[in-house]
Each structure stands twice: as C-alpha cells, then as structure tokens.
Amino acid sequence: MPTKAPVKTKFSKKTYLHWYESMQIMRKFEEKCAQLYLQQKFGGFLHLYIGQEAVVAGTVSATKPSDKHMTAYRDHAHPIGLGMHPKYIMAELYGRQTGCSKGKGGSMHMFDKDRNFMGGHGIVGAQIPMGAGLAFAEQYKGTKNVSVVSMGDGAVRQGALHETFNMAMKWKLPVVFVIENNNYAMGTSVERTTNVTDLSKIGDSYEMPSEAVNGMRCEDVHEAMERACDRARAGEGPTLLDIRTYRYKGHSMSDPQKYRSKEEVAEFKSQDPILSVLDTIYKNDWATEKQIENIDKRVKDLVLECVKFAEESPEPEASELYKDVYVGDYPYITD
Amino acid sequence: MRIIQYREALNEAMSEEMRRDENVFLMGEEVAEYNGAYKVSQGMLDEFGARRVIDTPIAELGFSGIAVGAAMNGLRPIVEFMTWNFAVLAADQIINSAAKMLQMSGGAYNVPIVFRGGNGQAGQLAATHSVAYESFYANVPGLKIVTPSNPYDAKGLLKSAIRDDNPVLVMESEKIYGDKGEVPDGEYLIPIGKANITRQGTDCTILTFGKIIKVVEEAADELAKEGINVEVVDLRTIRPLDVETIINSVKKTNRCVVVEEAWPMASLSSELAYRVQKDAFDYLDAPVVRVTQSDTPFPFAKTLMEEALPNVKRVMDAVKSVSYAL
C-alpha cells in the first residue's frame, strides 16, 4: 500500500472513480481480446490500447457529449470511454450481426453514432482531414461543438496532416488534433523517421498552438484538452496536443517487439495511468480496497458478458452483403 | 427553348440547389474569388458568400478529406477538382473514405457528397493532364458516376447528384464547358442510372458517354449518308449502368460498338463488352468492337495526340467492321 498523504487535485472523487473504472474496462477488455485472439476466436488485425488509457479517459472527461470524436485503427478504447457498452465492440471483433458496425467493419472500423464516435479509420492519417471536416461542419452550422481527432505518431508523417493543419488554422476550425504519441510507428521509432523528434513542434509551420502532454496522467490530458476545447469553442481554432503515452503491447498481435527493450517497457509500466489514479483514490480515502475490489469484479463480469454476448450473437446473413453499401436501391452486378 | 453553355448549366444546378438547401456548399481551388478556373462558379461567391463558396489551397487530399468529414456531419459538400487529373491526390478519400463509409460503419454514416470537375484530355496538355478516369472509379462499389455530355444533361444530372445521399462523381470536360445547348427554364432532374438514346437506329448500337459522343454523332451522320443507321446510347451514368437500355438496343440492332476516351485495358468498354455478350449473346451478329484511346500515355505533339484519340474515321470503321461492310 502507498503512504497515505492526501494528493491535492482539482478533480473530484467522482471523476477519479469514473476514470478508474473506465480505464479498467478498457484494460481488461483489451487483455481479454488478446487472449481470445490467441485462441483464434476471431480473425483480422488486433491493435490494443493497453497503456494508453489515460489519453481517452482524460479526453472524454474534458469534452461534452455533443462533441465529435474520430481516430485511426487503434479504436476500441475510444467508444468504451465515450460510454458504449463494450459488448458491441466485442461482437464486432467476432464479426457478428450485433457488432457496432454490424460485423462489416471489424477491429479497425468501430462506430457509435449515438455517442458521436465517428470511426475507427484504417488508413493511417486519413482521419486527420475527416476529423477537421467534422469541425468544419460544426463551424458551418454555428454550434460550439469541438471535433477531437486522434492519430498515432506515425500518422504525423502523412501529407494529409500538413494539408489539414494549414486549412484548419486558416479557417480557425474548432478541432483538437491529438497525437497518441507512443513513440513507435509500428516498429519504427520516431527518431528513425524524422529530425524533428519533438512532435509538439510539428504544428509550428502553421502557427498552431501546441503542447506536449504527459499521457500517462488523466489529469494532465484533461487539463490540456480542456484548454484546447475552450480555445476551439471561443472561435480561436485548432490545437495540437502531443500526448506522450506508451503501448505496453506490440503494434498488433503479430509484433515480436524486437525494436525496444524490456527495460523501456518496464519504465513506462511504472507510470501506469490506472495505478496512478488508484493511488490518488487511496491516498484521499475515496474508496476502500473492498470498494475497488467490487469495481474490479464488476469490470471482470462486464468483460465476460461481452464475450458471452458476442459468442451467442448470430453471424450476418448472406443478404447483409448487399446492405449498407448505398443509401436506397442499387442494381448490383451479380453476374 | 433558351440556349446556354454547359458551364452555365452546371452553375445553375449548383446555385439552385444551394438556394434550396442551406447545407449544400462548394469548395475547391479558385472556385470563389477567381470565379472558377473554368468559370463554372461565376458569380456564386457574390450570391452565397465566402461561407458557402470556399477557395481552398492546392491540397486535394486535404480538402477532399475535410469535405468527407463535413458530409459525415450533416453537410452536403460539392468538391470541385480543377480536373480529375489532380484528384488522384485525393483518391484515398474518394475510394477509402467516401465510398466505404456507409458499409464499414454498418449503415451509420452515409457520405452525401459530390466530387466534380473536368475529365480526360483537354487539348495538348500531355500525359499528366489528359487521363480519362471513368473506369478507375467505376470499379469502386459505394460510388455513383455520371458523365454529362451536353448542357441539358449537365444541369439535370448535377442536381440529382447533389440531392443523392451517396457519393457521386461528376465527370465533365474542359473541352465542352463552352458548348451551348437547349436548357429549359425551371427545374428538372435527370435520374442517375438511366441512359439516353440520343439517336434512333437499326443497324448498330454505339455505346458511349461523355464528350466523345460528339465524335460519335459526327460518325453517325457520315454513316447515315452511306446508308448505315446507327443507334447512339449516351450512357449518362456509368455506375450503375443502365443495363436494360443497353441490352434492349443491342437486341434491336444485333451489333455493338463501344466508343470511349479512356485507355483500353480494364475499361468501361471491357465491362460493356462483357455485359453485352453475357446478356445478348444470341442476338449478336458480330463480335463487340471498341474504339478507345491508344494504350499509351497521352502525347503532346498534335499529330500524335490525334493518333491517340478516337476519331470519326475509327468509329466509322468499327461500325463497318461489325456490319461486315468494310
């Protein structure tokens, strides 16, 4: 047990307990996914968010339900953080009709219209202009909503980013660009692909306000996100947040991780965002060990419910193949 | 009936739809203050203002992606490409984002967007500025593609494209923006997916689309003088194809020539020839023959350019070959 000197924080007990439970769901869900994948319960790619949970948790607590969210293919945690029942994500991974994309999108293409989670996109960097486009629509309609578009550090090298940064700044779009900077584009470290290793400087050519953020701490992510959203809602345009995080697992399930040391992974695990939040909860006497055990039990049961739901859900009927391709009737070529 | 230019017809279509629906807007290079690289959007900035007629930097991938995002979030963008030759830079957003969004989101997000601009060759612009892209995009499920060949079709098809809830590509041509034709006052729509028989005939069907139809019409006039009456089917839409009209025409004439501006390999003519042999095999009195651009990058020199393109003589020869009249 940590020593129990209270931790000063501007955030409430409720927020901390929510962060804890939300991140535990993300973590335990992803751990279960890894296990099921190894058991060959489902196919496709599988990119896990383990280690990066504070980025989503802090983002969600700092944004409003009417804000829009978009990310790349490491996309299971975002809809969980936004409140979607994870059984729909699990069913999607299993390719079931009940999945959040009816089994048509898979791991890389999760969507939740009810919570403004607008994908899950498979092409590295493609979500950057689209995410700015969500903001364009909000500005056009005169709302105060913000678009939060996330990308990995690898996506920073795509031309789409630079084209988008230029227009987003010129047009003062209400968008927050989030680099989930885990320092590796698949197996290639940031240092190996650029001479500008400080990604918070990547917006400088466009005079985009930017900050580097400790992505292992929900508090830091929340505060930076809040500042960025305030700026966007005030009509001051985009912000770039270089949120420095770490993925404990490989890029995908087939990654042997020969590009980094065990010591490096251990160093980041010592800053674990879930343990950090838990430490504050304990030090401030916001929950007993028994109460935390109850949360953990609830999370464990939830994840098992997800698996049960997915495995009991029907696979899509063959007739689904020709649905959701076009709005309205379409004369498909079938011969 | 009043006579207006093709570019004016497109302008009327966009302006009418923007008056009708606040969510429709136009973006692209030079569309606002310059009034359009080819003056298609002349006067629209004055009427609709900079919020709805938006000049972009030269960043096809970026502004196309922004438009796709805007379409996912309730707007109905019209994206003008100065030419489809520059839209290759935006192909990821057209093919991977716009076309697939509805399917990969399980029906949650459709993308009501129009991508439009000049397509194919426009004089001696050489290899990079002269590609006819119809078949590239026709291959992609999730898209619709229209190819208006005259002012009347341009207005009616573009209006339908703007109202469609799916991504629609409109392939125009710099070579015909100045063409004049009859366009009625008042509103009309031309349905997407329906071909138009522009010339009735009995001896051979010519399937064609886009500006190359002018070559076909000239060839048809010449053939008529020689007693060969061809039926010309302007496809108007190339995805989806109006199979019924195509097949009925071939069943009537028993012969089929396809004329297109694009390269031959894996082209619309390949698909059309497949469709005709599949659905009208017993009605054919000759193999399907096609006239396409040469299987080479488009050349600069005038002599080579003329050699590369379908022309009246080649169309006439094709029709005669399937009529065993050569």
Provide an overview of this structure.
The complex is a heterodimer of chains A (335) and B (326). Chain A has 335 residues and is of the alpha/beta class. Chain A has one domain: 3-Layer(aba) Sandwich (Rossmann fold), CATH 3.40.50. Chain A has helices spanning 13-38, 53-62, 77-82, 87-93, 127-141, 159-170, 218-233, 262-269, 273-283, 289-312; strands at residues 68-71, 117-120, 147-152, 175-181, 184-185, 188-189, 210-214, 239-244. In chain A, the strands form 2 sheets. Chain A has a 6-stranded parallel beta sheet with strand order 2-1-3-4-8-7, with helices on both faces. In chain A, strands 5-6 form a two-stranded antiparallel ribbon. In chain A, strand 5 (184-185) and strand 6 (188-189) form a beta hairpin. Chain B has 2 domains: 3-182, Thiamin diphosphate (ThDP)-binding fold, Pyr/PP domains (Rossmann fold, 3-Layer(aba) Sandwich); 196-323, 3-Layer(aba) Sandwich (Rossmann fold). In chain B, the strands form 3 sheets. Chain B has a 7-stranded mixed beta sheet, sandwiched between helices. In chain B, strands 9-11-10-13-14 form a 5-stranded mixed beta sheet, sandwiched between helices. Chain B has helices at residues 6-20, 44-48, 60-72, 91-98, 101-104, 134-138, 151-163, 213-225, 243-253, 268-280, 302-308, 312-322, and strands at 3-5, 24-28, 53-55, 76-83, 114-118, 144-146, 168-172, 180-182, 196-199, 204-208, 230-234, 237-239, 256-259, 289-291. By secondary structure, chain B is α/β, with parallel strands linked by helices. Chain B is built from 12 helices and 14 strands. Classes of the chains: A alpha/beta (335), B alpha/beta (326). At the A-B interface, strand 2, helix 5 and helix 6 of A face helix 3, helix 4 and helix 5 of B.
List keywords for this structure.
heterodimer, A: 335 residues, alpha/beta, Rossmann fold, six-stranded parallel sheet, two-stranded antiparallel sheet, 10 helices, 8 strands, globular, B: 326 residues, five-stranded mixed sheet
